[in-house]
Write a structure and sequence with these properties.
The complex is a heterodimer of chains A (332) and B (300).
Chain A lengths: L49 H24 L3 H25 L18 H25 L3 H27 L4 H4 L5 H20 L6 H25 L11 H22 L3 H31 L1 H15 L11
Chain B lengths: L19 E6 L8 H10 L26 E10 L12 H10 L11 E10 L7 H5 L5 E3 L5 E3 L10 H4 L6 E2 L6 E2 L5 H5 L5 H5 L5 E5 H17 L6 E3 L12 E5 L19 H24 L4
Parallel strand pairs in B: 1-10
Antiparallel strand pairs in B: 1-8, 2-3, 4-5, 6-7, 9-10
The chains are: A mainly alpha (332), B alpha+beta (300).
Amino acid sequence: MSGAPEPPTPGRSGKGQRVADRPGVSMVPPAEFRSYYGRPILKAPIWTDEVPAYYFAGGLAGASASLALGARLTGNHRLASGALTASAAGILASLPLLVDDLGRPERFYHMLRVFKPTSPMNLGSWLLTAAGPAAVGAALADRLGILPRLGRAAEVVAGVLGPGLATYTGVLVADTAVPVWHEAGDQLPVVFAAGAAASAGAAATLLTPAADAGPARRLAVGGALADLAAVEVMRRRLGDLGTPYERPPARRFANLARGFMTAGALAVGLGGRRRTGAAAGAALILVGAACQRFAVHKAGIISAADPAYVVGPQRARLAARDGSRHQPATGA
Amino acid sequence: MSTTTRTFGGGYGDAARPRVGFFTDTSVCIGCKACEVACKEWNLVPPDGPLGFTGNSYDNTMALGADTWRHVAFVEQEVPGAGAGALQPAHPDLAAEAAAAAGLDGPPSAKDGMRWLMSSDVCKHCSSAACLEVCPTGALFRTEFGTVVVQGDVCNGCGYCVPACPFGVIDRREDDGRVFKCTLCYDRLSDGMEPACAHACPTDSIQFGDLDQLRAAADQRLATLHADGVSDARLYLRDEADGIGGAGAFFLLLDEPEVYGLPPDPVSTTRDLPRLWRAAGLAAGALVAGLAVAFAGGRR
């Protein structure tokens, strides 16, 4: 009875999984759904590749600051130096990425004209405003050997805020109407935290003599394994809603991330005490962590652009809510 | 004046006004697009791009966006067994010939017909407006009329509101860098006038007014249609218990919302924000625990 032309085939894989922990709600987009000429219901995110690049750089900066604080507290000053450098580099890379993606870059400071807890981007801006100068200042004080007490205070500030910096971006993307992001809201912060840990460990492994880099190597390997596991859990829970990860261009990034992370974890884990093994493995993990963020970003765009991912779960929700009644709530 | 409608007057004090909105009764929409034109003219909205034909009925704008604040959807549906009065060929022999030339089994049956659904879509001015809540600059704000408006001098074009909207309403104007959407004619409201689209609508498909009065009118209209046998009629976004807390702009539809390009069960994403922050807290804790384990293994 639908007069609208045949909608495009929604992304489907062979696997028809359901979300086990949501009784009654199937996350499977229906094979047949009705739409307006197959047009998207949502507007896909307009964020460019600078934004996933920031997720990577910001996560690296945050976890590195915490790694540096841990190194300082355990008296491992050479590791602290390496991690502080990585943290400052991550922050310095983040700022131009964030500003340049704005439609009106000259108004970047408007982010700070309000304090708005309902906006993860606003809270993230405040977090960056506090942690950014602290991380860069701490790295400068450490490298130049100046202002030791202020430098240590800055290390504490950056190190304490670091885990927030590494995870808030997961909330930022999940707090949208994009199905593949929003429905993974419980897992995305874990994915981003694990990726941040892996990158921070890898960067510090590159920047620290092998004899002092034990904690960094363990963080790199543990973070990479946690990232692989967290992504797997996320995609299983999403079921068919997660099929954007199997569609280009997200698929390529997801596959690269898996390959690089696995190879990097093996290289660092087995050969990390030697210079070449450490360098090669760390580089693989860094690239893998970046690819993982790009996979999430691209999957979000695919998910928003296909009405199947929007209509399917909402129809399932309605059906679960009011049984056989196949209609939205009315005032009748 | 307004008693039952939830008001957003908190920050406005005595300046708060009764919440206003649109009730779009699509059962009387004739698809004239006067609303689209009036909106463009009054709000000086630039062209959508080069003129083109989509081939999708009479719809050549296809969706709401930065440069389309009212959008008239055209849905052509075959209605089996619509009976006499439905589309019937004046010259059955010519119709049969045309059908054969087109490779069809036969001309449309006299028993079958078409129905044409038309609907003027607009920003919903949600009670729980995700665009407003995620906006990091405060550019999107709630007016004294309970509507949701972008302040052009504040927006820095971060784009967060774009994927946050469960209806795909708001979008960035790329040559400008900022986001734009329906203001419910904030300037006209301030002068006691109704929005341009409602003013231009020749059939009163677009009704403007105090939200509680519109809801009462919509309930009455739905009852009338049901009594007349139009069982497909339903109200969309009228219910305050829905995922967006009810809309400032709600609709009477003659088919499921997705047929018009509307989400069947929209939810404001920020409803889940506490859960999301809890997940982030756990993830941050796990990161700290991972660091502790990494250091527990010693320096080498």
